[in-house]
Design a protein that fits this description.
This protein has 3 domains: 80 residues, no CATH class; 117 residues, Aspartate Aminotransferase, domain 1, CATH 3.90.1150.180; 242 residues, Aspartate Aminotransferase, domain 2 (3-Layer(aba) Sandwich). Helix content is 42%, strand content 17%. The chain has 20 helices and 16 strands. The strands form 4 sheets. The chain has a 7-stranded mixed sheet with strand order 3-11-10-9-8-4-7, with helices on both faces. By secondary structure, it is α/β, with parallel strands linked by helices. The longest helix is centred in the N-terminal third of the chain and has 21 residues. The two termini are 28 Å apart.
């Protein structure tokens, strides 16, 4: 906008803050929010319009009307957006079971109920109710992990990256940790084993090749500076073809012969059998690993946590490390984790009680009637077509990367909306619905829709279509 008089005229047309606050549109805002907060937001809206007038090239480029009511409506939208919880519950229609962007695994009902019951006030966290003396906050968790894995000892920190970090720091700081070159894993967020090893103070000594590492490679690398033998489960990728790797049992035998501890970083972690090619934690314990680390919020299906099990001497060294206090979990994690682990005591019911396990076990035949019912309801929405199709779900969370799960999808197409516009509208509902797009269709995967969400999902899709259709 090169015409200075025109710019000045637009600037003069902006209402004053007090004028907006006296408007009928603002009256409801002042009833719902503190006056100071409403005033700040109105001022932000006016400042934004003022900058737009100064920066744009024409009146048509100014974003939004400049009258009092329009400013108040914009402020109302911002206040409503600000009041909406950032970490609100969402409906996961993506088909990714362990979805990092959506909080990974859905918690079991028992864990949710325990949080609601125990976390509302004070909780017994780090005190013995019988003696009144301070105790170990994770002792009940440790007892359950010993029971479920057969390990001598156990403890818990706030995630598996922290578990790996502190185990290396406690057992191999200043010394070499020998690991196969094919196991130098990178997971989401650019977390890399070499980087965490450097932060722990351990010295990386990688051996072998990407596709083949033999026992002779480990044997040849052991020297006076060696502190640890490390195996890292490649949970988020697989190397296939011309390959070879040492077994954990072989590493344990070598470690015993050379006086070296052996650590097994499982990543996802699994407490049940027959989850694809994921090794159960108990197998690593039986093999004799000194330390086994794994996640609480991936295949286990609980809250975010890093679980450490193994031999008593090694676990005690980890627990006594100065870093331990910085990465120990709080009461919310402990409450939810204990409730989740208790479910694993009954192998006959755990797969139904833990949502992650139930979703992984669901067959297309299980999902077909739910998909058909949802498609029938959504197909009745004006201008919307819905059909049931075959598809493939993903485990996600860096687990079982080659393990696709046959599923049933509800495919949506709108008469005038693009797939992108429909998907965006679904993300703005309450709760937001996350989907995937393929071939200009919005796909909803029933595998990751919790059974009690079917009716809610149908309702929010109708809500998303209530505004006037839009293109683009």
């Amino acid at each position: 906008m090169n015409d200075a008089p025109q710019r000045s005229q637009l600037l003069r047309s902006l209402p004053a803050v007090d004028e907006v606050l006296r408007s009928a549109e603002a009256a409801a805002l002042l009833e719902a929010w503190p006056r100071a907060r409403v005033t700040d937001v109105v001022r932000e809206v006016l400042d934004g319009l003022r900058r737009a007038i100064l920066d744009t090239d024409g009146e048509d480029d100014v974003p939004g009307a400049l009258d009092v009511d329009a400013v108040a409506r914009t402020a109302a939208t911002r206040l409503a957006d600000d009041a909406r919880p950032t970490h609100e519950r969402a409906i996961n229609g993506t088909g990714v079971v362990i979805h990092t962007g959506l909080g990974r695994s859905a918690l079991p009902r028992a864990a949710v109920e325990a949080l609601a019951r125990e976390a509302a006030g004070y909780a017994v966290v780090e005190v013995d109710r019988r003696t009144g003396e301070r105790n170990r906050r994770e002792e009940r968790i440790a007892a359950l992990l010993r029971e479920l894995t057969g390990a001598e000892a156990a403890t818990v920190v706030n995630n598996n990256a922290a578990a790996t970090l502190i185990a290396l720091a406690a057992l191999a700081a200043g010394r070499e940790a020998i690991v196969s070159r094919g196991q130098l894993v990178e997971i989401g967020g650019s977390y890399r084993i070499p980087d965490v090893m450097e932060q722990s103070g351990a010295i990386l000594r990688d051996v072998g090749c990407t596709n083949k590492t033999r026992m002779a490679d480990y044997e040849a690398a052991i020297g006076d500076a060696t502190g640890l033998l490390l195996r890292v489960h490649t949970s988020n990728y697989r190397i296939v073809g011309f390959t070879a790797e040492a077994s954990l049992e072989e590493l344990v035998e070598l470690g015993a012969r050379r006086g070296l501890p052996v650590m097994d970083d499982l990543g996802s972690g699994c407490l049940v059998d027959a989850l694809g090619d994921e090794p159960p934690v108990s197998d690593s314990v039986r093999a004799g690993a000194d330390v086994v680390t794994f996640s609480g919020d991936k295949l286990l299906g609980g809250p975010q946590a890093g679980l450490i099990v193994g031999k008593k001497a090694a676990v005690e060294r980890i627990r006594k490390h100065p870093l331990y206090r910085a990465i120990r979990p709080g009461k919310l994690t402990l409450i939810a984790l204990e409730a989740t682990l208790r479910l694993y005591r009954d192998p006959d019911t755990v797969r139904a009680e833990v949502p992650t396990l139930a979703q992984l076990a669901a067959t297309p035949a299980d999902l077909e009637p739910r998909a058909a019912a949802l498609a029938a309801k959504l197909g009745a929405v004006p201008a919307l077509s819905a059909s049931v199709e075959e598809g493939v779900s993903q485990v996600g969370g860096g687990a079982l990367p080659t393990h696709g799960l046959p599923t049933r999808l509800v495919a949506l197409q709108h008469a005038t909306w693009s797939a992108g516009a429909l998907a965006a509208a679904l993300r703005e509902t309450t709760p937001p619905v996350f989907t995937r797009i393929h071939a200009d269709r919005v796909l909803i995967d029933l595998r990751t829709i919790l059974p009690d969400e079917d009716e809610l999902l149908a309702a929010v899709v109708g809500e998303a279509l209530a505004p006037a259709p839009r293109n683009g």
